[in-house]
Design goal:
Elements: H1 9-17, H2 19-28, E1 36-37, E2 54-60, E3 63-68, E4 79-84, H3 91-104, H4 114-128, E5 129-132, E6 148-151, H5 155-166, H6 173-177, E7 181-186, E8 190-196, E9 200-208, H7 211-224, E10 235-239, E11 245-249, E12 260-264, H8 273-278, H9 284-295, E13 300-304, H10 310-317, E14 327-331, E15 343-347, H11 360-367, E16 374-380, H12 384-393, E17 398-403, H13 407-415, E18 431-440, E19 443-458, E20 463-473, E21 478-481, H14 488-498, H15 506-524, H16 530-543, H17 545-553
Parallel strand pairs: 1-2, 4-9, 5-6, 13-17, 13-18, 14-15, 14-16, 16-17
Antiparallel strand pairs: 2-3, 3-4, 7-8, 7-12, 8-9, 10-11, 11-12, 18-19, 19-20, 20-21
């Protein structure tokens, strides 16, 4: 099959290897121009401002993604996200292979490891099929055949669909493989939606057409992840094998649109602090300030509304915790990632029975006996906050995310039902960072709105006193620093711990500027990989901050 419109050389090479991609392009060129081809790693956040997007990129295993702006006249308002998979083999062929596999898989073949499962399945597949050099009439095949003939050109497609449907997540697999997706949403019957890290919300070409189809898929999905769902237990929270977080709601009992699910994607390599600075989520001075606080065992909450980037920021700033510290993290779903070698990772367990379940409260109480230098709580929601504040009072610094859009809301939630932290205890929490998603020129961005120091409780006013040290100016998209002499934590706590006298208070602010300059140099050198940034930070402990700055200024290796 040929395309009349010329392709660029790279796309021409790709369609020779994957002819079905050429078939897809032939269909769409009637309404769209030929898409530009990119390798997955070539996509860039600079593309956020593109209006007429029309690109194709691979996500592995012969899967491609096409993102484009629909032609005029389309009323959904969404850009499209189209999954292009290998052609599905003949139904009769798949049916026979599944029957033969069922006959040849034994109890000894069971494994919990996804890679081992894949290897076992592919070995069994090799045993039950034979490769044919000529096309096969799959319609005529029946169960009596000892080995199933498969045309050599169909073999890779057979492997893909057998692994996808038996070990993977079925037609969700392409979404899970795409590293540029943040979350995947099925709202009920109809098209599914995704949130792309570059192009924002997109409507996919994958849809559920009936409630029966959707309910059946949701039940199988819940069984596959080991959390069966039913009308008696219609809501499930779980972690997928790749670490992504999934929430499933089953049936009409608790959802007017019927069954639905959302997958929050897990990134194997966290976003670094330098990348957040490059995106202007925060500036180098804010990052340097947080670095000093975490070096000095200050406790803080990263706060914001849903999808404001709280966990992303938490994962980025934990690289500032000294590398030799023992850190204990506590979560109900695994989202926190640390580069520290001495990291104890705890997860809750929900069995449905009070006696055998392990809550955040239980794990926090246990963490106090483990002598950690830092405790990180994935998200504080309820009564576990009281244990977190007890930990702070006994000298165990705590970092956590918290759902609140302002310091006032943080205080209201912590001091009200059901948490009920006494207001006089609030000064154990040293800082509150408020972050949110904002729209600028039609593009969704995350910004740190403020970084606030908690001074303490004023009994006369019955209020919590706090100081916003950094504030975002939305008109200029810059971060305003209150200036030298404005930080209670730097001057009254950290300087005092270091034995810095009042007359020498300039030293602590000079250090702030020096650390900010170091981070700025990392950004200018485009050192954005999380672990490269971590290695650079670790070296500041080994050779000193000034030495590392001189190396970067000379263009030396980090």
């Amino acid at each position: 099959m040929r395309l009349q419109i010329p392709l660029d050389p790279r796309l021409s090479k790709v369609v020779k290897e994957y002819p079905y991609l050429l078939q897809y392009i032939n269909k769409i060129v009637r309404e769209l121009e030929v898409p530009r081809f990119y390798e997955t790693h070539e996509l860039s956040y600079d593309m956020k401002r593109l209006r007429n997007v029309n690109i194709i990129y691979p996500v592995g295993e012969g899967i491609f993604v096409h993102i484009y702006m629909p032609p005029e006249g389309t009323v959904s308002g969404y850009r499209k996200y189209v999954v292009i998979e290998p052609p599905r083999p003949h139904n009769n062929l798949i049916r026979l292979i599944e029957l033969k596999l069922a006959e040849n898989i034994y109890e000894s073949d069971v494994s919990e490891d996804p890679n081992e499962k894949r290897n076992i399945l592919l070995k069994k597949l090799e045993k039950i099929i034979k490769i044919s050099g000529s096309p096969v009439d799959y319609e005529k095949l029946n169960e009596k055949i000892s080995r199933i003939p498969v045309y050599e050109k169909d073999y890779e497609h057979v492997k893909y669909y057998i692994v996808r449907d038996k070990i993977g997540l079925g037609f969700l697999e392409p979404f899970v493989r795409d590293p540029w997706l943040e979350d995947i949403t099925c709202r009920g019957i109809g098209y599914m939606y995704v949130f792309h890290k570059i192009f924002g919300p997109l409507e996919t070409n994958i849809e559920f057409k009936t409630e029966e189809e959707l309910d059946s898929f949701v039940i199988k999905l819940a069984e596959r992840i080991g959390k069966p769902i039913s009308h008696a237990r219609p809501i499930v929270d779980a972690t997928l094998p790749d670490g992504s977080r999934i929430n499933i709601v089953y049936g009409h009992d608790v959802s007017l649109h019927g069954s639905n699910f959302t997958i929050r994607k897990f990134s194997k390599i966290p976003i670094s602090i330098t990348q957040l600075i490059a995106w202007n989520t925060m500036d180098p001075r804010i990052a340097a300030y947080i670095w000093i606080l975490l070096n000095s065992n200050m406790s803080g909450f990263i706060c914001g509304e849903t999808a404001s980037g709280k966990t992303t920021t938490l994962n980025a700033i934990v690289a500032f915790i000294p590398p030799t510290y023992k850190v204990v993290s506590i979560e109900d779903t695994a989202e926190v990632q640390l580069p520290h070698l001495n990291w104890v990772r705890e997860l809750t367990r929900d069995t449905g029975a009070k006696e055998s379940s392990v809550s955040m409260f239980d794990l926090l109480r246990a963490a106090l006996r483990q002598r950690p230098n830092y405790i990180i709580v994935g998200e504080i929601r309820g009564v576990e906050a009281s244990i977190a504040f007890q930990a702070m009072q006994t000298g165990h610094p705590v970092l956590s995310t918290f759902h609140a859009a302002s310091v006032e809301r943080v205080v209201q939630r912590l001091t009200g039902d059901p948490i009920k932290i006494p207001k006089s205890f609030m000064d154990n929490l040293n800082f509150v960072l408020i972050q949110n998603a904002v729209w600028r020129e039609g593009v969704l961005m995350r910004r740190v709105l403020s970084v606030n120091e908690i001074i303490g409780y004023d009994p006369k006013a019955d209020a919590i006193v706090y100081v916003p040290v950094f504030v975002w100016d939305p008109t200029r998209d810059i971060f305003m620093f209150r200036g030298r002499g404005a930080s209670y934590l730097l001057e009254n706590k950290i300087a005092a711990m270091r034995g810095i006298a009042r007359v020498n208070m300039k030293k602590i602010y000079d250090e702030l500027d020096q650390r900010a300059y170091f981070l700025k140099l990392l950004v200018e050198r485009k050192i954005f990989n999380y672990f490269d940034v971590w290695n650079a930070i670790v070296k500041t402990y080994e050779v000193g901050l000034e030495t590392m700055i001189r190396r970067l200024e000379r263009g030396g290796r980090v």
